[in-house]
Amino acid sequence: MANETPGQGPGKRIDEPTGTETVGHEWDGIEELNTPLPRWWLWTFYLCIAWSVVYVIAYPAWPLVNKATAGVLEWSSRGELSKELDARALEQQGLREQLAATPVANLRDNPALFRQAVAGGNAAFKLHCLQCHGSGGAGSQTLGYPNLNDDAWLWGGDLEAIHYSIDRGIRQPDNNELRQSIMPAFEGIFDAGQLDAVAEHVLSLSGKADGNAVGAQIYADNCLACHGATGEGDRSVGAPRLNDAIWLRGQTKDAIKQQILNPRMGVMPAWGDRLDPETVKMLTAYVHSRGGGEGAEQTEPEIVAEPIMGADGEVENGEQQR
Predict the structure, then answer these.
(1) Does residue 248 come out as left (phi exceeding 0), alpha (psi in the -120 to 50 range) or beta?
(2) Phi/psi of residue 245, each to 5°?
(3) What is the pTM of this model?
C-alpha cells in the first residue's frame, strides 16, 4: 500500500541522488519520482490526437442508426470495392461478349477463349457448386452427389449436354417438362428371395457376382426397358449404366437393394434462372475440362482433379455416377 513519506505530508521534495521531484508516495522504502515524459513522446502523443481529429472529420467514423457519418472526403471501403468490381467487370467485358457470341458447342474451337472460360468457371464452381460436388468435383456417394471427374454421365457428357443440365437443372419440382428421370419404388413388389436374386443379377452385369436365372427374369420384366438388356443404360431418359464400376449410391449388395426398394433421386437447381448465360457457359467449360468431358479431344487439361482419398487409403475419384 502506498504511504506518504513521514514529515512531508502532501508536499513535494527533491530526490537528492536524481534531482527529480517526488510525488510523496513510498513502497517498502522506494519512493515514487515524478519523472517527466520525454518531449518526443509528448509531441508524438499530441500529433496522434490531432490526426484523430482530422480523421474523424475526413473519413466515416461515428456509427449512426443505419449508417456511419460519411466524412468530408465521402470515402468508404464499400465504395472502393464497388469501383474495383466495376473495373474488373469492364476488363471482362470482352470475354463475356465473346462467350455470348459463341455457341456452347463451339467453345473448344477457340482454345484461348476456352481456357479463359475454364478459369472463370473454376471461380464460379467454388462459389456455387463446391458445396455439393466438393472442391475437387468428386461428389459424395453417401449423399448422392455425382462425381464430375469420371466419364460416366446420365444425360451425356459433351458441352451441349452439360450446358443443358446446368442451365435447366435436374428433376426440378416446378417444371416437369425438363429432365425428370424417376425410378419406381419396388418395395412390396418383390419378396426377400426375389430382391436378393435381382440384386445379384445387377452385380453380375459388372462382373461382381454370378448371374442367376431368377434375377435375370425379374430384371427383364421390370428393369430392361430403362437400363437395357446388358445394363448399358439410356441417356435419353437418364437411366444409369449398371455394367460398369461407377456407382452413385454405392456398389454393395445392400446399397443396391435399398435403391431398388426406395430409390433416392437427386435434384440440381436450374442455374440458368440464377446466373447469367456467360457464367453458365463458363461452368460448362470447367465441368467439361474436369476429365470426363466428351465430344472433343482433351489436349489441354488446364485443371487437374484433386484425388480424394478414402478411409482405407484408396482413391475414391471415379466411384460415383452422374
Answers:
(1) alpha
(2) -105, 20
(3) 0.66
